Amino acid sequence: MEHFLFSLLVVIVILVFITYLYLFLKHKLNFTGENLPPGKIGYPIIGESLEFLSAGWKGHPERFIFDRTAKYSTQVFKTSVFGEPAAFFCGAGCNKFLFSNENKLVAVWWPSSVDKVFPSSTQTSSQVEARKMRKMLPNFLKAEALMRYIGIMDTIAQRQFAADWDNKKEVLVFPLAKRYTFLLAAKLFVSVEDPERIRKLEDRFEILSSGIISMPIDLPGTPFNRAVKASSFIRKVLVEIIKQRKVDLAEGNASATQDILSHMLLNVDDDGQYMKELDIANKILGLLIGGQETASAACTFIVKYLAELPHVYEKVYNEQMEIAESKAHGELLTWDDLQKMKYSWNVACEVMRLAPPVQGAFREALTDFVFDGFSIPKGWKVYY
């Protein structure tokens, strides 16, 4: 018996060694070629994913970038993240090159973990679904539509200021900004205002947003596993809302223009097909996450910079008070009022330049190309 166990142990060790050797050689082969950018590729599968993610967990995501651009003295470096060979492009010149070659040299790419969190009933990838969404959104976000939302935004803002900001010596801005943007998104996207339903969704969204871009280890207790479970719960709630909306539209109890859910239900795609309920749920789920995280980060940094720059705060305050004093008691903001907020608008734009709400995003090389003397092979992932 002992001899059998020893032999089994030896076989297991040999198999593990062979597997690791295979993964190591495959990993090295992904980075063969002439004139590749400088950089470190890390271990097989893991690469530098842990370093990339941990920089964000520690609150300084830019350090992963800055440390390597300083080390290699270049705006382009190679690495391996999420099991993929990748080139990181840093700076305005790199961004301009990538954006001007969208769908020519590069296309949108997301880690495979994202497809697990947002499964499509049509079995298409997150890249294809993202392109569909970009075609659909302009109609919902055009100026005439945005004009209708200003009063809603003002009402929710006043309500939240009264509940969470007034008469407080100190407030934590980011959690409150996230709550405001979530309430706003829930109202504008799916017309949900019920406090209990919003609370349940909000708790799950917190879990989902913290685990969506993590190591894709789907084991009980891991951030990714919790994110998958949270997305499943949210999706079920959204499907219930979608089913009820279909009934309301059929009975004339809902408007075709009241929110993005009605827009999705009543419009067809390029093939003349209506979207399935699960796909609508996934798209709204993605919009809720993207809208909440980016808008709340922008709001938080605006407050931060206003607190640090009293002369800028004074000008913003005076502009806002001038508009407020021109309004009757209880009168909500209008599109015309927003046009008067020129200085405030410039402050918001400058804040987003200094502290972008999104650190970056991935693309995939559609073909071999050369940038700044470095070769980027087809299939490599590019992070701007």
Distance from first to last alpha carbon = 57 Å
- Give the helix level as a range of percent: 55-70%
Quick check: average pLDDT?
84
What is the CATH homology-level superfamily of the largest domain? Cytochrome P450
Tally the beta strands.
7
Can you tell me the CATH architecture of the largest domain? Orthogonal Bundle
CATH class of the largest domain: Mainly Alpha
Strand order of the largest sheet: 1-2-7-4-3
Radius of gyration: 24 Å
Number of domains: 2
What would you call the shape?
Answer: globular
Q: In terms of per-residue confidence, which ranges show pLDDT below 50 for 5 or more consecutive residues?
A: none
Subcellular location: Membrane
Pfam families: p450
Keywords: Iron, Membrane, Metal-binding, Oxidoreductase, Transmembrane, Transmembrane helix
Transmembrane segments: 6-25
What does this structure look like?
A hairpin with a 2-residue loop joins strand 5 (369-371) and strand 6 (374-376). It is built from 15 helices and seven strands. By secondary structure, it is α+β, with helices and mostly antiparallel strands. It folds into two domains: 1-116 and 368-383, no CATH class; 126-354, Cytochrome p450, CATH 1.10.630.10. 24% of the residues are buried. It has a five-stranded mixed β-sheet. It has helices spanning 2-29, 49-57, 62-72, 92-100, 112-117, 126-141, 143-165, 173-190, 195-211, 223-250, 260-266, 277-308, 310-325, 335-339, 342-354, and strands spanning 76-81, 84-89, 106-108, 362-365, 369-371, 374-376, 381-383. The model has no long low-confidence stretch (mean pLDDT 84). The protein is globular. It is a single-pass membrane protein. It is found in: Membrane. The chain crosses the membrane at residues 6-25. Its cofactor is heme.
